[in-house]
Amino acid sequence: MSARSDIRSKFLMAAGWGDTSATSITGDASARSYQRLTHPKTQQSAILMDAPPDIAGSSGPFVTVAEYLTATGLSAPKVMAQDLGHGFLLLEDFGDQLFANVITGKPPSEKLLYEAAIRVICHLHDHPNLELPRYDSARMAQATDLVFLHYRDTPATYLDDPAQNAIDHLADQLAQFDDFSRVALRDFHAENLIWLPDRAGVARVGLLDFQDAVQTHPTYDLMSLVRDARRDVSPDLADHLITLFCQIRGYDEPTFRAEAAVISAQRNLRILGIFARLSRSMNKPHYVDLIPRVWGHLQTDLAHPTLTTLRGKLNDLLAPPTPDFLARLRTPCPTLP
């Protein structure tokens, strides 16, 4: 038994979950892993999050954000036991009714579920959290550096002048926006939302993967939802959800859509860089399979008139995801960290 396995066993024993059966479940893009445990006596299930602090970072933000979400009336998993020093959390099990799974099994439910998710975003915006980090215009623009470093034939270790110029231009556009105070969970999409039909109102949407929550622009989670890297959301449904959000929040829709295009372009640029890095530096080539969809989202964003200049700058910097280019992105780069 490894040292970590021994610590895990002691943690579960202390929590009253020793000798449980365990089944691995799909994790996220981080170093965290998850198991569904079944208690041998009660048959109750729970989720074990295993997040080694030296490679996954502290699990403290997950606990803190979960407490905030629950306090506002939203559904975050209850933390049943914790060992932050070693990176173990025992969490309430929301089951496996991910939005993506529910919709696959019952396509007519898609609109209902997505509208419920929109109301969760609105609820978050009505419950500010000044303790969360600020993800403002400067930080958002600089966060796109990953695409210019990793989404290329040969990964780079520094930003050349054209890449920095594109980042500076994006920063100037983002700096024109005046609201970066709304709570966003950042990975708000159909594989991080669980349908809990026995609950009421906004609590029907179970929330996962929220430890990176920030204060940022009000369009952020909305565009994460409708420009999903993992599943297609039809243009008609996306348009409906954006209109619904504007109606609920009282936003001028043309202005909102222009700002949303800029925010979404920032997200999709960063995601392209993250997926390329995950493949080439972290031996996770399956993320390359998602790149064509993200590229399509980016082209949709860049088609908005407000992004004409940025589109011109990116045309000379970013290669379309041709089969040959995607094959190169799947090739590991052992010299990079």
Question: In brief, what are we looking at here?
Answer:
46% of the residues lie in helices and 12% in strands.
Can you describe this structure?
This protein is an alpha+beta fold. Helices cover 46% and strands 12% of the residues. It contains 14 helices and 9 strands. The strands form 3 sheets. The protein has a 5-stranded antiparallel sheet with strand order 1-2-3-5-4, covered by helices on one side. Strands 6-9 form a two-stranded antiparallel ribbon. Helix 11 runs antiparallel to helix 12. The chain is globular and about 65 Å long. The model has no long low-confidence stretch (mean pLDDT 94).
Please give the structural blueprint.
Elements: H1 3-14, E1 21-25, E2 33-38, E3 45-50, H2 53-56, H3 60-71, E4 79-83, E5 88-92, H4 99-105, H5 110-125, H6 137-142, H7 145-150, H8 161-174, E6 182-184, E7 193-195, E8 205-207, E9 214-216, H9 220-226, H10 235-249, H11 253-282, H12 291-302, H13 308-315, H14 323-329
Antiparallel strand pairs: 1-2, 2-3, 3-5, 4-5, 6-9, 7-8
Outline: globular
Major beta-sheet overview = 5 strands, antiparallel
Helices, by number, come to 14
End-to-end distance, in Å?
Answer: 29 Å
- Oligomer state equals single chain
- Sketch the topology as an H/E string, one letter per element: HEEEHHEEHHHHHEEEEHHHHHH
Task: Using brief descriptors, characterize the structure shown.
single chain; about 325 residues
